[in-house]
Amino acid sequence: MSEIRWDLVKQNWVAVAANRALKPNDFPIAKMGLKAPAAGGFCPFCEGNENFTPPEITAYRPKSQANEKGWLVRAIPNKFSAFTLEGELVKTDSGIFSCYNGLGEHEVIIEDPRHGVEFHDLSPERIETVLNIFKERYQDLSSDARIKYIQIYKNRGMFAGASLEHCHSQIVGLPFVPQENSGLPKYYRDNNRCLLCDMLAQETASEERLICKTDHFTLICPYAPRFPYETWIVPQRHCEHFADINEEEVRDLARVLKKLTGVIMDCLDNPSYNLVFNTAPVNVEPEAGYHWYMELTPRLLVNAAVEIAAGIYMNPVAPELSAAMLREIMS
Ligand SMILES: [Zn+2]
Ligand SMILES: [Zn+2]
């Protein structure tokens, strides 16, 4: 079980594994040194190894039975979850410090039964199925009043934090709302308008950082990107929660994601990347100004001291230049 500790200085939550610790040699980067990780070996996410994972939560399987072969997409509890969805949130004080128990949910979505198939290799129809399973899990998790925020994300490659190479994403249900997107409700309070809708209008008019527009989504390199080639995928329809995405938008988004991840893999020479969903909190007093969107952040650099110490990201690629390059290839 983890503890969710409050960092008084940085004003941030940190999930700390309170009773188990990785040994110094267990860390992938330490193991690797400067060599590429070895491929192959046993993989619990491969078809036929269903018994090596916890029983599935849901799956897309045209014919077969639960926890057998024959699935196409499979959602399972994370065996090494930092969180457990049991009991209530309990605060514990220790002098000036305070923490909460690790209440929450951590799930894995395995996106293909075959090992070595990457997200950008999946058919648009398969990515649609993956998005529909994200939506189903989001709806289910949001029905638990103890969960306040649902984070869907993908870590692809070691420098993005992936510990298994089999194509998968993860969902974390958290008992608190992260600070990360607090600029959205703040902008609404100050201006009585949605920040992302205003941003889409300005970026579309100027075209400087616009990559492309599809029927339902606009792709931009954001004005102040933390990472080189950081790309945002923003739905044109103002919508707070990812789970309110409609069928047509799912279809369109699947095609956008396939194309964008393929282009990023080609242009940036097979990089590690994170793909994350930003969405409104759930089960809290509603606040206006949220507009869900996705971020794709290639991980071409390792965070350095100034990012850790000052929180200032040093980005060597201007978004105007990365947008121009991606615009040419995406269109
Ligand atoms: Zn595998
Ligand atoms: Zn909006």
UniProtKB/TrEMBL annotation:
Q: Where is the Galactose-1-phosphate uridyl transferase C-terminal domain?
A: 184-306
Q: Which UniProt keywords apply?
A: Carbohydrate metabolism, Galactose metabolism, Metal-binding, Nucleotidyltransferase, Transferase, Zinc
Sequence ranges assigned to domain Galactose-1-phosphate uridyl transferase N-terminal in this UniProt record: 73-178
- Gene3D superfamilies (alphabetical): HIT-like
Q: Which residues bind Zn(2+)?
A: 43, 46, 115, 166
User: Which residues does the Swiss-Prot or TrEMBL record annotate as the active site?
Assistant: 168 (tele-ump-histidine intermediate)
- The broad enzyme category this protein falls into is transferase
Among the GO biological process terms of this entry, one is: galactose metabolic process
Q: Which cofactor does it need?
A: Zn(2+)
Could you tell me one molecular function GO term of this UniProt entry? zinc ion binding
Cofactor binding comment, as recorded: Binds 1 zinc ion per subunit.
Q: What's the EC number here?
A: 2.7.7.12
* InterPro entries linked to this entry: ADP-glucose_phosphorylase, GalP_UDPtransf1, GalP_Utransf_C, GalP_Utransf_N, HIT-like_sf
Show the SUPFAM superfamilies listed in the entry: HIT-like
Family membership, please give it: Belongs to the galactose-1-phosphate uridylyltransferase type 1 family.
- What is the name attached to this protein's record? Galactose-1-phosphate uridylyltransferase
Q: Name the source organism.
A: Syntrophomonas zehnderi OL-4
